[in-house]
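pls ignore typos typing on phone
DLL + seq
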Amino acid sequence: MAQNWNDLNGNFHPASAADFLPREQLRDLQSQRLVELVKLAYKVPLHKSRMDEMGVKPSDIKSIDDISKLPFTQKSDLRDTYPYGLFAVDSSEIVRLHASSGTTGKPIVVGYTEEDMRVWHESVMRCLLMYGIRRGDFMQVCYGYGLFTGGMGLHGGSEMLGCTVIPASGGNTERQLMIMRDFGTTAIACTPSYFIHMIEESQKYGVDMKKLPLRFGVFGAEPWSEQMRMFMQKNTNIKAFDIYGLSEIAGPGVGGECCEQNGLHIFEDNFYPEIVDPDTGEVLPDGEEGELVITTLAKRAMPILRYRTHDITSIIPVPCKCGRTMRRIRRIGRRSDDMFIIRGVNVFPSQIEVALMRVEECTPNYRIILEREKDLDTVTVEVEVQSQCYSDSVAALDTLRKKIQASIFNIVNIRIDVRIVQPNKLPRSDGKAKRVIDNRKI
Ligand code: DLL
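k done
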């Protein structure tokens, strides 16, 4: 098959070769990897019991076409086996742990072997190569460093590529802009909402974004739109690229856009994508919209079979003009569950509920209001407190408000606005309580 390296400026990197594997070769590789993966996953009690219940043995899985015989894995499985119950290797082989929001008070934990780290970083690097980023670029990583996979993932991939990495981590916009200007940053990785915030603040700090050497933006961890891309590209000299990923599967780098900026290539040799009907779990053909399900074909520490991402998208049924054989998904704009993402942090309403219930003055009557102001998502929690705790004193209410805010911070790790509401003031429903009021338009 004709291979088109044009978008690599003739500057071919060996790690990109896999992006162009002929489809039959790719299927063979996927089949071989799936067979190995299932053997390994069968050592994990949860996967074994699920497969036994369905009457599927590892030997029944002979090729990638058998994948639909396998059980799904859900976020709740990671919660129920917290922290290490889905690990398939001895702890002496685990070289890294990360964590992400669970649906309630505890996070979910993911582990990596040395080889998993290599595959993950290489996947991030393949994304960067697709965007046109090269050795010699100065990469400012402003995703959070820590248990979140964003900072360390982009860091590892950029370093593997040979970029000069600036591990700025998140926050302190004035300092970020100063670094960007003084260090000669040419590529930036952060949430799209944070970059828009930087653009808006830049004038205040006397930085002309158009005069910077900044050329590439690596944006993900939350949904964003073409309008946001236009805004970013108009107000700076960057080309803004989408990067997708999730902790349960690896972190950033499960897929990304190529220079066509028309859908995200999924690195199918490592992460096998399926689209299913979110209600029935039935597999849908390419082109149809549904929930993205991913199997980690190359993961050793924590092999994941058919993970229900809850991200809604479709697989684009035609090959990409760039020549890559890896199929593309459309950008992710919404989810099939109630998780929302604020400043790149995943939040479940159930986590907020747990936090509120830890404060004895709170009642179970609350609602979560999501808004989008100048392309930045904001969230406000309104909660009714017990009548005997509701006072006319502004100071007393403020103390209580801070206590509630601290309880929420303890669980979700970001500061969320809290509004205390008089008892019996929030609207009641005679059916299911409507907890989340989403006034955002994405
Ligand atoms: O957000 C990993 C990541 C870090 C991706 C940096 C890209 C850049 P989690 O915290 O586990 O992992 O959140 C995963 O975030 O299921 C999506 O709902 C959402 N998400 C991630 N990337 C995108 C994107 C990281 N490009 C969850 N567009 C996923 C839309 C995204 N949503």
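Confidence is low (pLDDT under 50) at residues 1-8. The two ends are 39 Å apart (CA to CA). more later
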